[in-house]
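[recover] target loaded
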């Protein structure tokens, strides 16, 4: 199982609870002035890849360390519709206070993992990798990219310092130079660490030729049709790794893989994944009747 550093989980859980509980839980306090023994079950309302369970568990325990939790489906595991994935027992007031934050982690991150898994399934039989991008929520990048890995995807750059990627707006500032793409490759090789691959974006066959001439390690074919991708790959002829990006959907991803791409990067994995459908069912716990002596 892909693991996220515990410190990162604790940081994000703390921020989530600060948002939700900084002024207490007025409703729960008004209704239940005394402990209320209860049992909760989080249930998958669709077929999904579980992601965020570690964060959800941490959320409940930070609110109330006396809660008892039983994980049914761990991070990275598939859950079927109607299947329970987590049981929580203890003071119902604590469960209510942690409910929304815990579900936020599970719904959002399971949505990312599930969508990534769907893309992986869509290209079954091909060797292309499914990659994410830096299009993530501020402060949530580590968690969102963790969810991508749980869904069998791979991570692209974690930050701007994690690799050299020459994009369209970099090239826009170099347009006065002759052959901007080739110049960008030369400048990147001279100015960056020699251990980092040079990735350069190309939007046309002309720019592909320039990227080849500039000896780019990875040529990112941006917003091309599968037919254009095939033509570009024939032109590249093994001299660089081929990545495709831009407008990739579940409907066209298989065509991109069939065209011969080595890598397919998809911003929608993190910025547009629909939240997974999960619900928390809460019931009063059964109490043993007092015996008369």
């Amino acid at each position: 199982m892909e693991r996220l550093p515990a410190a990162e989980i604790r940081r994000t859980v703390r921020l989530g609870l600060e948002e939700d509980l900084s002024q207490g839980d007025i409703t729960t306090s008004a209704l239940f002035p005394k402990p209320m023994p209860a049992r909760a079950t989080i249930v998958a309302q669709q077929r999904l890849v579980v992601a965020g369970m570690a964060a959800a568990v941490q959320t409940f325990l930070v609110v109330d360390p006396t809660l008892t939790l039983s994980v049914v489906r761990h991070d990275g595991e598939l859950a079927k519709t109607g299947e329970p994935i987590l049981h929580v027992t203890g003071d119902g007031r604590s469960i209510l206070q942690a409910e929304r934050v815990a579900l936020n982690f599970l719904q959002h991150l399971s949505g990312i993992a599930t969508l990534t898994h769907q893309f992986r399934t869509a290209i079954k039989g091909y060797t292309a990798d499914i990659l994410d991008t830096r299009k993530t929520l501020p402060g949530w990048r580590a968690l969102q990219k963790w969810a991508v890995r749980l869904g069998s995807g791979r991570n692209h750059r974690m930050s701007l310092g994690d690799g050299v990627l020459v994009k369209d707006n970099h090239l826009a500032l170099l347009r006065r130079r002759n052959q901007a793409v080739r110049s960008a490759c030369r400048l990147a090789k001279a100015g960056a660490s020699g251990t980092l691959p040079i990735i350069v974006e190309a939007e046309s066959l002309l720019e592909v030729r320039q990227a080849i001439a500039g000896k780019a390690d990875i040529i990112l074919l941006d917003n091309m049709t599968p037919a254009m991708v095939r033509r570009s790959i024939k032109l590249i002829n093994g001299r660089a790794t081929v990545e495709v990006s831009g407008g990739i959907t579940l409907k066209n991803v298989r065509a991109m893989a069939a065209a011969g791409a080595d890598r397919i990067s998809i911003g929608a994995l993190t910025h547009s994944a629909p939240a997974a459908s999960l619900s928390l069912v809460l019931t009063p716990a059964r109490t043993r009747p007092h015996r008369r002596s």
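[recover] notes: The radius of gyration is 24 Å.
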